[in-house]
Design a protein that fits this description.
The chain has helices spanning 2-5, 74-87, 100-111, 130-144, 148-159, 162-175, 181-194, 223-235, 252-255, 257-268, and strands spanning 6-11, 14-21, 26-31, 57-62, 93-98, 116-122, 210-215, 240-245. With 269 residues, it is α/β, with parallel strands linked by helices. Helix 4 (130-144) runs antiparallel to helix 5 and helix 5 (148-159) runs antiparallel to helix 6 (162-175).
């Protein structure tokens, strides 16, 4: 089923996979965060959590480009994302980015404000906090050391709440089984880029309404990062709404169905 949802777009030297779900008139671009295995591997599982959007929106879930080399930066990822959107004929879109996806989405809105209609940032940051650097550098180290099992367990424990991790660990471990060396190398390249996110002083260049969703127990990007994002956006006069899920961890976007409802209501206003 996933194969029927997944497509490939080619533009210039870029080749990128994406999953398209829904049939609504409005395009919603979803940029996932770091993932040890591509979300394209489980594209069919995206339909249920995003069903509220399917009548009003056509959703495009993007992977990162296929040929990523060490040193591939977040601004480059944002520029490449805009290039493939234009290749698909998508000129004005709503963008929802989580974690690293939110970092890429910020650069998109800063560097290409004409293309972003509304922006949703989940568990993201404009500047790496010390905990983020420690956490993600540890993931990158484990990936390069080919310690896949330790990486997956660390990833689960850092991203999900204790209750969620305990309940779904077996399913999550199954999702991340048989990780190839190529996938580990690719993960490390994208993990490295997170250290250098630096949009804070340019947030005033964003010209669209923004919704920032944070998590009070975020052990990756941290709740402080979401607070700083909101404060800076408001100080710069950018229309900004926010909500903090105080008792949730980094991957609250995967844990709470209500999370999608809040995004939908923001986009529909």
């Amino acid at each position: 089923m996933s194969e029927n949802l997944v497509h490939t777009v080619r533009a210039r030297t870029i080749e990128m996979e994406y999953a398209r779900i829904g049939s609504g008139p409005k395009p919603l671009i979803v940029i996932p965060g770091l993932s040890i295995k591509s979300v394209m591997k489980s594209a069919a599982s995206l339909e249920g959590p995003f069903k509220i959007f399917k009548d009003n929106y056509t959703l495009y879930f993007f992977d990162r480009k296929k040929e990523a080399k060490p040193g591939y930066s977040l601004p480059e990822m944002a520029d490449d994302q805009v290039t493939v959107l234009k290749a698909l004929g998508l000129e004005k879109v709503d963008v929802y980015g989580v974690s690293q996806g939110g970092m890429i989405a910020q650069y998109m809105a800063i560097r290409h404000p004409e293309i972003v209609n509304k922006l949703v940032l989940g568990s993201s940051t404009s500047k790496a906090e010390p905990l983020q650097i420690t956490t993600i550098q540890n993931w990158a180290r484990l990936a390069r050391a080919r310690e896949a099992t330790t990486l997956v367990n660390s990833f689960i424990d850092d991203c999900f709440s204790e209750k969620f991790a305990a309940r779904y660990r077996r399913a999550l471990l199954a999702l991340y089984k048989e990780i190839s060396d190529e996938e580990l190398d690719r993960f490390a390249i994208f993990a490295d880029a997170c250290d250098y996110v630096d949009t804070y002083n340019d947030l005033g260049k964003i010209k669209c309404p923004v919704l920032v969703l944070g998590a009070g127990k975020d052990l990756v990007t941290t709740p402080e990062a979401s607070v700083k994002l909101v404060e800076k956006l408001k100080a710069e006069g950018v229309p900004c709404e926010s909500h903090m899920y105080e008792d949730c961890g980094h991957a609250v976007f995967d844990e709470l169905p209500e999370y999608k409802n809040r995004i939908f209501e923001f986009l529909e206003r």
